[in-house]
């Protein structure tokens, strides 16, 4: 059952990969939506042609570093979509935002977490931050009689844009896994669609669930073949050692803890049932995403 149009949703992270689609989908459903953005003019331009933006979209200028604008604008909203890009400081930022939100009467937070939160305790920098943030939001929800739905996506399809250089210069997809090992991925459109459904379903339906989002598990040789199709040249899979992957990422300015995660985490589960159940359709496949987003790689 769709929510009533008296619902008001607040969105943090509105101008990023996932946030843009969440905001556009909420507006298309005529949900009053407030977005917390660093640059209002840039954001106005971004959503200028969005359906119902002129009537249903409100902009608040703010930053993680100073939450006063969030504090003075959150009252009257019953739901919050919470995506924080600062992985290192995420637990504190989400705790502060969650405290303000629940105290102001928010009943549901939809938190963009990570499937890495399920890895062995403290074995991953990304996992530890997301898990701590989840735990703090969950405790806050219990204290305030609210709910928190944690979305735990695995590796985004869009991460492939990070390694565009290897496609161009080495004609290769480079990773440290054996070539036949299937690794987890997920479409950002699927993540955004799940978020939109949860934000517009009755709050009681999802309570404080956590949804693990693994959409496609693909081995290295198969991934390389998708890029060969769009680039019209042979692309091979090149397996490097975990040490080489870390060194290459650090040379390209990745923080060492992130590079270590990418070289060591075990993300080899099969796709989960969340999208088929919640959205009533199959997950987007990596192949279809690569073919659809050729312009990102040529
Ligand atoms: N990549 C993966 O494989 C993966 C997997 C699981 C989970 N995740 C999680 O997904 C999230 C990233 O999602 P995404 O790709 O949609 O992010 P994104 O495209 O990088 O967007 C980040 C958003 O956060 C905003 N933002 C950044 N710094 C801010 C600040 N100081 N104050 C206020 N807003 C700020 C950005 O606004 P501006 O437009 O002003 O920059 C933008 O709206 C992270 O939490 C990450 O840990 C990623």
From TrEMBL:
Gene3D superfamilies: NAD(P)-binding Rossmann-like Domain (3.40.50.720), UDP-galactose 4-epimerase, domain 1 (3.90.25.10). Signal peptide: none annotated. It comes from Absidia glauca (Pin mould). InterPro entries: Ergot_Alk_Oxidoreductase (IPR051604), NAD(P)-bd_dom (IPR016040), NAD(P)-bd_dom_sf (IPR036291). Pfam families: NAD_binding_10 (PF13460). The gene is ABSGL_00844.1 scaffold 958. This is NAD(P)-binding domain-containing protein. Residues 13-202 form the NAD(P)-binding domain.
